[in-house]
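User: Please predict structures.

Assistant: First:
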Amino acid sequence: MYSTKVSIFGAGGTGGEIAELLVERGYEEVSLIDVQRDMAEGKALDIVQSGAMIGSDTRVLGGSDAALATGADVVVITAGIGRKPGLNREDLIATNALVMQQISRSISVLAPNATVIVLTNPADILARIVFEETGFPSNRVMAQGGILDSARLSHQISRLAGVSHKQIHSMVLGGHGDHMVPVRQLASVNGVPALNLLSEEDWADAVERTRFGGGEIMEKFKTHGAAVTPAYAVVAMIDALHSPVSQIWPISVRSGGAYGLPEDVFIGLPVRISRVGIEDVLELPIDAAEREALKRSAASMQATYETWKNTTARDSFNRASRVQSR
């Protein structure tokens, strides 16, 4: 269906699920890249053989060599350590930032024209690191989060209002995590404002269950988080990147100053996306409380990023000082 090469760094649960969905859609080639070579190779073999059942001729490769990403059109990053009970997404940054830097250096050489989608948490902050490390234009670096959170909100509206998922549209902006911003006036059921069908208490419940939806799933699994819905969210972005006409999705992108946010912050915003990448950010008339919540979300991510940056600079200085003193 698509003459496109997609490379996925991280062959765990979500990476494998993304690969499966891409095979179902008939993408030309999918590569799974993971430090655990045997797992990546085995998963690739398992997935490619499903092509005989569904009539897909997608090539599926697996291994530990970053060279598998050579010439990729789209690079998805799911690699790194995942959330565990008791850990916030921001707690993961020290380890996962190093993973992003290493992968970014590889793809900037091997796939200089690729569009990069970051799924590893904390996705918004790590997308900023990938943007800086690769030097790619901002319309080709993004993170997933808003689509997943919007799906969770839509599910909660369906549950509370007793209506079909098919008729529900919602949009969650802000950071992917506790600082997400569900937008009330953008939640609807076949054009009917969702709040016409929900009480204030129902809406508050839907928001609460959405905000902590990932943690709820992780508590059940014990060792890892959600994989299926995040994979569908990433594939929706990949499909949009092959659309000749614009699609509108909530995606974490460089704000560029939209909504009065710091220009360099990556945060979930409503965007037009198509085969040219991110076309622009849509400045929608959200209410004052939501605008302030969006600013708080951005401020939180800016602070976390600066803490990481300052810590990294201090550690680099200390290492250099020790070498010079020898």
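Second:
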Amino acid sequence: MFKRTVKFLGMRVSLILLVAILLVAAAVLGLIVGYGFLGGGNPSHIFKHELWKEVLDKLNPSK
């Protein structure tokens, strides 16, 4: 009984981790495609801090 419960929980945790990893991968791929190919920018720039600072400054113009 205990082994079955541990196996079930392990499978459930593995599934949750897989879904989380796939969501992160889809978000990164979407950013690369959106900014790099559709937006005309360099796809590797989405990993730079300066780009995100600029985007957040545009979204929060209170400064």
